[in-house]
Backbone:
């Protein structure tokens, strides 16, 4: 069950979750394009005018990249396009696989919730003090809200995964080398 390939859709994107995921994918893609344009503009001004654009490293490192990465993590979990090492897992009997999936999903939800809580505390602090990137005047406090939001979303997704494991949704998982479909939380939720 390697889920690093594109998942084919059987149903049109009609549900709210599917539409939201598509929107997040577009936002991340546009962010990558805008970040690339920003970096190229910095290279151009440095080469042609001998003066780089002020704050480019901070804007890219503290604003563009965290936004793109946090969105990408959530979308990859929803799409089931994460790397899974299931060499041992696939050899377990069905009931043990269900329990392992439940445990790992519940643990992942708890850890994600912990990261969300810690990130929220840090984000509130950053907003209160008006945090700026080190050695520059680039205001980065608002972007600190994105990691707690992403981790809270991941906690919800892992909780859904744990509940689906209890109901036996993964009992008939395929582990063949040619199985590239991977789990898709939204597609599978439509069948429930």
Residues:
């Amino acid at each position: 069950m390697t889920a690093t390939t594109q998942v084919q859709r059987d149903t049109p994107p009609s549900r709210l979750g599917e539409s939201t995921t598509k929107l997040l994918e577009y936002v991340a893609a546009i962010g990558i394009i805008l970040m690339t344009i920003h970096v190229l503009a910095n290279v151009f001004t440095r080469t042609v005018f001998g003066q780089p654009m002020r704050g480019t490293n901070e804007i890219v490192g503290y604003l563009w990249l965290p936004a793109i990465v946090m969105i990408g993590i959530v979308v990859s979990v929803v799409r089931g396009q994460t790397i899974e090492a299931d060499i041992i897992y696939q050899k377990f009997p069905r009931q043990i696989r269900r329990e392992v999936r439940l445990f790992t999903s519940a643990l992942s939800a708890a850890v994600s919730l912990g990261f969300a809580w810690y990130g929220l505390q840090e984000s509130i602090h950053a907003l209160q003090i008006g945090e700026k990137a080190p050695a520059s005047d680039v205001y980065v406090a608002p972007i600190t809200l994105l990691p707690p939001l992403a981790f809270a979303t991941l906690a919800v997704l892992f909780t859904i995964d744990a509940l689906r494991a209890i109901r036996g949704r993964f009992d008939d998982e395929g582990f063949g080398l040619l199985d590239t479909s991977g789990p898709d939380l939204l597609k599978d939720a439509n069948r429930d």
